[in-house]
Queue: 2 jobs
Job 1
Amino acid sequence: MAAAPVTDPPARTGRGGRPRDPSRDDVIRAAILRLLGEVGYGALTMDAVAAEAGVGKATIYRRWRTKQDLVIDTVSELNRAWTLDADTGSLEGDLRQLVHRMVEMMASPVGAATRSLLAAMQHEPALIDAFREGPMAIWRRAFAEMWARAQARGEVGPGMTQSIPAEAATALFVQRWLVTREPVDAAYADAVLERVVLPLVRQETAGSRAG
Amino acid sequence: MAAAPVTDPPARTGRGGRPRDPSRDDVIRAAILRLLGEVGYGALTMDAVAAEAGVGKATIYRRWRTKQDLVIDTVSELNRAWTLDADTGSLEGDLRQLVHRMVEMMASPVGAATRSLLAAMQHEPALIDAFREGPMAIWRRAFAEMWARAQARGEVGPGMTQSIPAEAATALFVQRWLVTREPVDAAYADAVLERVVLPLVRQETAGSRAG
């Protein structure tokens, strides 16, 4: 992991429901990112976030009701930045870009914070649904939209997005990131694409054309 | 995960270095299994293990120097039971059996304890190496021996065991088990074998024969 360059995520675009003071939001998000990496979700408190961000606790509570809301929203928003503008015009281009972005995210402080949340899920069942509807949904949607674009271009059949082979597009990275801790870098991303993901896509496409 | 039947692991065989009182060892292991599932690695103490197992702390310290030794040894030994006698006579038979055993382990209390250790790794770097040399090495060795047998039978080329496609034999299960929490059961195991693992093995074999 040390070998992977930590690149800046692409600039975030605006969206509805954006708070009035985005710069203060960014300061709070940066504080959470540091605290999750350092102490983890369990030991993170609203007091520590307020102190680390240099804002009053009332400022935080005005926008987020609970620690879980605050952390899930922050980690989701930070992950979202890596998934924007993913349309390159071809499935192979889209896959390559999304997988490289995911690998960069994993090696970044956002990856450490996301992994910290995944660890906390083990003993806080309420986090499982929150993670699924937050950070995980961000990546699911990015991949689902990629498969939908590929289907519209005639590159894959309609069953790809929910298919088991589609799970392979992320699974090998997740396994190294969470279990084996072997390098997850750009070279590994390319190797997984060439030897696992693209062959499985070709096989599924051939199968759906033959069927 | 609830749908997966929790079957008993195969009986353990003896090995060198076995303690004099294996039944007491088993009681201590069962206590750790319960505590890891309930409170997690961080909150587990030698006192709690001794109380839960109904043995004196001296008994535990005679055999294990530290909490880390005790927990890693226990989780390794419990995982080992699922990997024994894996030779079925063919690669497809071996793969099917190992993958089904892994899926049963994930749905069992041993799986919950293993996942608890993986979560603890996030904030205890010393656990990363211990996990790699303990529970992870058990499964790595079982899969490596499976690829070696397949190579000896002429079913795959020599490069399979360390290959990236070989990582797919476990990665999809790990992703559901640790991240998406979608069902990991026997039907899923068969589907992953048919649509991901066996096609990749055939592709690698064809490639190594052509090359």
Job 2
Amino acid sequence: MSLIIIGTVAFDAIETPFGKTDKIVGGAATYASLAASYFYNKTKIVAVVGDDFKKEDIALLENHGVDTEGLQIKEGEKSFFWSGKYHNDMNSRDTLVTELNVLEHFDPIIPESYQDCEYLMLGNLTPQIQRTVIERLNKRPKLIVLDTMNFWMDIMMDDLLETIKLVDVLTINDSEARQLSGEYSLVKAANKILTMGPKYLIIKKGEHGALLFHEDKIFSAPALPLADVFDPTGAGDTFAGGFIGYLAQVGTVNFNNMKNALIYGSALASFCVEKFGTERLLELDKTTIAARLQQFVSLSSFEITQD
Amino acid sequence: MSLIIIGTVAFDAIETPFGKTDKIVGGAATYASLAASYFYNKTKIVAVVGDDFKKEDIALLENHGVDTEGLQIKEGEKSFFWSGKYHNDMNSRDTLVTELNVLEHFDPIIPESYQDCEYLMLGNLTPQIQRTVIERLNKRPKLIVLDTMNFWMDIMMDDLLETIKLVDVLTINDSEARQLSGEYSLVKAANKILTMGPKYLIIKKGEHGALLFHEDKIFSAPALPLADVFDPTGAGDTFAGGFIGYLAQVGTVNFNNMKNALIYGSALASFCVEKFGTERLLELDKTTIAARLQQFVSLSSFEITQD
């Protein structure tokens, strides 16, 4: 039994009002697998890099117990590279450079040892690649989580809808939920999207937290208000990784565990933004995470004292 | 012992994508006192109207046990009138007409029978009028809540700061918190504002809920996601009225009761937007409110199952 995370492993160069980095290790699968590793010790990744990706870069993941057998290294090619600059409010950013490189012809190969997959996180990639991974697993995982974005809605909606049909949980942000459903109200948007395949929908609202929809039930997870957001890169992927990592650990998929999983994901995401790139994610421990989880309890607990 | 609410009692004409109204009874003190009346039966208002305000309009309030002795009726003058049109997203609106009328020379007279005031809600008015009310009370109330808006920050910040110094709780929205503090991060904004006088700060975020700050503690109240928002007019005032009405009922001011009060206020506000104007607020009962409060419990409860 294992958790497989497919997504980008990449180099990022990031500029925020607090400073800038040279090329550092990033990518959705990097953030998500590091986050998941704190909750589940059989986390495996499927991804591709070029030969510019160093042994010590891979060690970042392996030191956290992440299985990298499914990480293809393409000789003579370069890793996916993204560079971006955040505005002062940290809520918007300009993409300065996107070099697909190895990602252009990415064929997600599933090692034989990954066929025990029970939990599958399909990070943001083309809907075809995401679908290919599902098809290449001999047995359908117990839970498939799909992350996607407006870009695929803009240019290949039909393909995306085909892939969405196959998954259990969809994670998108509020404007993407509106785009996908054609509904402005998030409740109406969710009701429509829950007829497209997924049984659970997570709508990410950044600093405003996240909403989970399932049947006629709704859960609202708060975001931890932070004095400083140092670098928001990877926060959404960290959230998704913490979410599925917690569920894989618990081993039972139901609405209650899903609610808790949103809090675990949110807690990990709140660490992610405290330093540049993966830096903060690399140095966590169980005690630090437990204290942060208690902050989420204080943040949202109240009592109905009358009726 | 009583709860006094000062604010506008007015006529509104509202247009939303769902329809439009003729002149209907509105105003901050109307919404807030109706909301408070469900939790506390000694709610009194201080406000002014013209002789166009009918007996049956006043009866709307009195039927809910709201004491209107402090409602001045100016013969030969007209009531404050506001007309607005909401855009399709319901998050923005155009003001079509604002006629101050009686409000232009409003002198808030406190009836002798109001001198037992323990809880005071200063609805959005000029900072001078708000301050006058505090000065005219023989004894400082146990709790003073102040609502204000960006308009007063734009044109009379010094006056506003003088009034803010005198209160216990300030309620503003997120952009107003940023304007008042000069800080973008809401945590930093709150830390600054909590040095300006108020011991508690409530930041209202509309469909994203509300945050309560006190010392180094934060509470995040979710908003109930709704399929249809019919008319947002008065939701913020309803929230404030439910908030202080609950606190007046409980009778003890502390952070825990304040947290609960935010949920009670949010629950009342979630009703307010379901119909035009005060319509939904007028027809509530304890059972309906108790069921809505339970929805807030389901919406935000989770469990930390490990550490």
